[in-house]
Each structure stands twice: as structure tokens, then as C-alpha cells.
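Incident review: delayed structure delivery

Summary: a single-chain prediction request sat in the queue longer than the usual turnaround. Root cause was a stuck worker, restarted by the on-call engineer. No data loss occurred. The affected request and its eventual output are reproduced below so the record is complete for anyone auditing the incident later.

Affected input:
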Amino acid sequence: MRRWLRQHHYALMVSLRRLAKQPFSSIANVLVIALSLTLPIVGASILLSAQPVLREVSVSPQLTLFLEQNVTAEQNRALAQQLQRDHGDVISSVQSIPKAQALNNLKSNPGWSSALSVLPGNPLPDALVVSLRDSENQAEEADRLAADLADLDGVDTVQLDSEWVRRLQAIMHTARIGLGLLGLGVILVVLATVFNTVRMQALTQREEIAVARLVGATETFVRRPFLYLGAMTGIAASLIAIGVAALALVPLNEALGHLAASYGAQFALQLPDASSLLLATVAVAILGAAAARWSVTRNTRF
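Output delivered after worker restart:
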């Protein structure tokens, strides 16, 4: 165990010395990876911060069933019970709005009170407001339910505005795909940058590696400092990217705060939780080590 620790300590010190010998190149490589990592971190912050707001917006899509004029109060209640019984898996609640209540609500609005006062009677129908349960495919379920309810006896018209739900889902789906493609691009940047860095280091240390092999050094011993080099590059770039992303959110939150305040709301972007950031840092370190191993294996065959 002590020998294993001594070997890894030696490899780590060798990697640090190699980085210190070329400070400008090392810093440039770390910054390239860090800036590439900043974009997906900010994108993930926007998506994660928007999720609670979107859940509040789309938590209860509704259908409004306007009943025929000849439907009685008893038939109205029976229809509401039938909806709960037959479609309880997708319906959260059914609210009955009598025509008299709807008329009074309109009369309470000054813009409608004068116009409604000249009507001889109540032209409004009874209505049932159907709230749907939250689900992954709200728009599709709302469309299917609207088509089924339109054929019920006593139902004159079904009003459904599911287009905004569909658009919202499409926007979120597109954003997730874009973030995934951005993450793939970052992976390629990390691989290419670390591969090229290790390649230059391997060519620079060509004679040293050859001598080490002559005195009996194993391939694992030769590769280990380069693996540490790739991992440390990934860790340093990840930490810098997290710091840059946190700084970038400050002006964004200030602008979004003014915009949200104009709508009487509060909204702020937040970085992903610490466990997610730690997991991402470890993933980048592993990716850097893998790229380093690939590079040193290809470029030290001499």
C-alpha cells in the first residue's frame, strides 16, 4: 500500500512540474475547456430554474364544457359525477358554474355591466370546468378528452386551449436537445484539448520516456503522470467554469429580476446543486484522464 501511494505521489509531482514548465500553454488549455464548460452550466441553470415556474403555469390545464340550454340542474350534477367516474384517471376536479353565477360574474365587470343590463334574459349556458391531472403528455391527453366529452349528451361545446401547453412542451424539449448537443460539443473540446496537450508533453518527454523504459519502467508507470495531467486539467477547468458561470448569473439575475418585477413576480437563476456540480467535475476529470491515456498510448510508441 505504501509503495502504491509513493508511486502515485511521484506521478502527481511529475505532472505538476510538467505543468509548471509550460505555464502559458497550461493556462490556455484550461481556459479553453473552462469556457466551453461554462455554456452548458449556464444552460442547465436556466432549465433547472425554469422548471418550478413551468410546473406552476402548466399544473392544471382546463377544459370548459358549455351545456345545452335545456339541461337541468340535476342533469348538470349527474354529468359532473359521470365525468369523475369515467375519467377519474386524468381528471383532477370538476367545477359546476351555473348560468346565473356566470352572469353575475360578468356584471361585476364595469365593462360588461352596462351591455348586459339591456338583455331581456340570461343568454349564458351552464358550464363545467374540468381540471386535468398533471402528466408528461398533458396536451395529448387534453385533446383526447375533449374529443370524448364533445360527444356526451347535453354538451353543446367544449373549449380547450391546449396549444400553449404543446408549445411549452416543444420549447422545453428543444432546449433539452440543444443542451445535450452543447454537452456533446464540450466533450469533443475536452478530448481534443487534452489529447493535444498530452501529445505535446509526450513528444517533449520523448527521451525521458525512452530512458525510463530502458531501466525497466512499466507502461503503467510511464502513463500515470499523463493521466494525472489530464485529470488535473479537467478539474481545474471545471472549477473555473463554475466560478465563471456564477459570475455570469449575477447580471442575468439582475435583468430577469427587473423583468419579473414588472409582472409582479420573482425569478432568479441558480446554479445546479453541489452534488450535480461535483459529479460533473468528476466526469470531466475522468474524461480528461481517458483522453490523456489515449494520447499517450498513441504517441509514445517508439
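Verification: Residues 219-262 form the longest helix (44 residues).
Action items: add queue-age alerting; document worker restart procedure.
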